[in-house]
Amino acid sequence: MDNVKTTPPGITTTVANQAQSHMGDRPTSTTNTPNMRPDEKQLTLQWFGNKDVRVVEAPVPAITEPTDVICKVTGTTVCGSDLHLYRKEILQLQAGDILGHEWMGVVDEVGSGIKNVKKGDRVVASFQIACGTCKFCKEGLSSMCDTTNSSSLQEKLYGKPFAGLFGYSHFAGGFAGGQAEWVRCPFGDVNLLKIPDSVPDEKALFLSDIIPTSYHAVQCAEVKEGKSVAIWGAGPIGLLAAKWCQLAGASRVIVIDHIKERLDLAKKTSGCDIINFDKDQDVVAAIYKLEPDGVDCGIDAAAFRYTKGWLHGIQHAVGLETDSSEIPNEALRAVRKFGTISLVADYAALTNQFLIGALMEKGITLRGTGQAPVQKYWKNLLSKIESGEFDPTIILSHRFKIDEFRELYDAFDKKEMGIIKTFVQTKFSAPPHPGTPALSSLREGDVKPSAVA
Ligand SMILES: [Zn+2]
Ligand SMILES: [Zn+2]
What we know:
By secondary structure, the chain is an alpha/beta fold. It has two domains: about 1-210 and about 370-450, Quinone Oxidoreductase, Chain A, domain 1 (Alpha-Beta Complex); about 215-370, NAD(P)-binding Rossmann-like Domain (Rossmann fold, 3-Layer(aba) Sandwich). About 25% of the residues lie in helices and about 25% in strands. The chain has 15 helices and 18 strands. It has helices at about 15-25, 80-85, 135-140, 150-160, 190, 200-205, 210-220, 235-245, 260-270, 285-290, 310-315, 325-335, 355-360, 375-385, 405-415, and strands at about 35-50, 50-60, 70-75, 95-100, 105-110, 120-125, 130, 165, 180-185, 190-195, 230, 250-255, 275, 295-300, 335-345, 365-370, 395-400, 420-425. The strands form five sheets. It has a six-stranded parallel β-sheet, with helices on both faces. Strands 9-3-5-6-10 form a five-stranded antiparallel β-sheet. Strands 2-1-4 form a three-stranded antiparallel β-sheet. Helix 7 (about 210-220) crosses helix 8 and helix 10 (about 285-290) runs parallel beside helix 12. The radius of gyration is 21 Å and the shape is globular. The two termini are about 30 Å apart. The chain binds zinc ion (2 copies). One zinc ion (ZN) binds near residues 1, 102 and 209.
């Protein structure tokens, strides 16, 4: 999940929560306040304020509806989009929200209406909570499920809201997330995928979000054999998208970022050309040097926050816009005439100085990816992992314990210590799979290991 962020100018979390309470919740097909098991406790990562997250004890959820499944978490992680929560950039956060939308586990208990999974099954959850029966779910567009998000504020802002999400504030339905030892999964038959023994947790976990999201971004950009592609942003989504482009037979994949290790990784794992915008400040000129007609496809996998120029920096700071148009404008200029651009990065509300002329005059298709419909892709993508065609662990840099989530958010936010993507273990996790990172500790300053188990 890589494009949920919204703080329209002048709207604070408090005001947003007041507005929601004034409007009342949208009706939903499942509750976001489940029953709890008496006397059982678990570790959870909870949000308390700007850059204030804490690992605290909480009750363990219980089966509340017949379609519920309760899972013990065996793997979780922190996502780039969690940093918007960390920095209080998402509306409708409430103190005590349990975060985390990327998780997997073992089924511990199932409701009476569950048919597809049973106690003991290894499963991965999609980051979105789909009902499986509404119009959008029936069309395979699980991320746009119409019945699971209670946010009337989002409905007001966008016209219609996307699906409820695990651990992503009340703007996304107010469901407890997977940065925890236990999770209640509503509509477990729809939102859990069984994992075969041949696929280790370190690979399966990423089917929850970044594998389908990166794949979806590449589909939306219409990348095909022989086409050239430019990808802005070499975070986990950009890096995995580059791999999908290479597997699709793209003639050239150019990755743009300014963090050296990430650019090196793009080169090493997917044979990309790289542009470091600290050195090559005119990114568009650098792209035309490599592809004189411009690239066929563009993917914006960067983030709104990383404005480069002073103009957008000031407008963002004083609340004249929420989102910068700098990268879409670079893409509009660098993509060939009648080319295609997909936006998978964080855009929320309003932008200024958008180069609408290039969009129209060059005949460019500019497509917002939306939240990726995970269920549409995940069986196919699991088979590509099983066969060895696709290995998501190319971006897995570290493994930590759930106890150190607070330190991990801080280090990840600062983009320190070469952390790209992490695997966070709980007391229910198996030992590291051979070839994946060994356990590190942030508390002991032991954070360099690309050492593998
Ligand atoms: Zn994510
Ligand atoms: Zn639905």
